[in-house]
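Input record, target 12 of the design panel.
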């Protein structure tokens, strides 16, 4: 794992945006695996700025997102589709038909998961996968467990994750309890992985990801088995390294 420690969140966001922009510059048709949550928001702002300044062109880029809440439509303000539109897609020159997020309202969940994986395969896999990390070490919505799944699947969120994500909702009761998530296989097949984490609350998980034992009970530790991972963390998140 390549480790980059930045002074603060702002510097982390710039660094991550530069890494993404370099990938797009070297391959204008890049397939980007994207993530939601607080961590990538600053990076998306930087990418929007770069796009407006003509420094990076998204017109031929395709994106594949990691996950989506079950039961929320794309126009629900807390859905991940809405998040992506608001925080990135609406502000850059991307063709929205080339942006994929699992459908949290799919009638046939099994079919939706199969199609999502087939689409990723058809695209030839992602060139880069961006990841945040949960306080409990989850990546996408692959929660700590005795076993992890490879393909896109339906998952139940842990109490920890529901609590952590309640900050985006009016009350904790509104947080969906289930989600569709890309599995570990989909993530590990990416040519490159960039993990970003900021703040002291992530320090334990960051330490376990970088130097802990590899365990399905710490999903991020599985990334130690990937050959091209860059971890970008600020000093607070790197505190225990
Ligand atoms: C969420 C998402 C993850 C995200 C993580 C951390 O539950 N499903 O993809 O990386 O939690 O979120 P944040 O960046 O807001 O701390």
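The sequence produced for target 12 reads:
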């Amino acid at each position: 794992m390549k480790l980059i420690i930045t002074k603060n969140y702002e510097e982390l966001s710039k660094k991550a945006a530069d890494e993404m922009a370099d990938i797009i510059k070297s391959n204008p048709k890049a397939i980007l695996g994207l993530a939601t949550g607080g961590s990538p928001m600053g990076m998306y702002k930087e990418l929007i700025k770069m796009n407006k300044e003509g420094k990076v062109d998204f017109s031929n880029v395709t994106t594949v997102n990691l996950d989506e809440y079950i039961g929320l439509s794309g126009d629900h303000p807390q859905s991940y589709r809405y998040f992506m539109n608001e925080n990135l897609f609406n502000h850059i020159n991307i063709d929205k038909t080339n942006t994929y997020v699992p459908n949290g309202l799919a009638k046939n969940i099994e079919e939706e998961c199969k199609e999502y994986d087939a689409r990723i395969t058809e695209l030839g896999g992602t060139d880069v996968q961006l990841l945040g990390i949960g306080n409990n070490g989850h990546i996408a919505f692959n929660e700590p467990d005795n076993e992890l799944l490879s393909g896109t699947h339906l998952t139940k969120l842990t109490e920890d994750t529901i609590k952590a994500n309640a900050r985006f909702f009016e009350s904790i009761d509104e947080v969906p309890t289930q989600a569709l998530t890309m599995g570990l296989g989909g993530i590990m097949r990416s040519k490159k992985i960039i993990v970003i984490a900021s703040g002291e609350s992530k320090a334990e998980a960051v330490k376990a990801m970088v130097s802990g034992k590899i365990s399905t009970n710490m999903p991020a530790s599985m990334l130690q088995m990937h050959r091209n991972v860059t971890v970008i963390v600020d000093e607070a998140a790197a505190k225990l390294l």
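The chain is about 30% helix and 15% strand.
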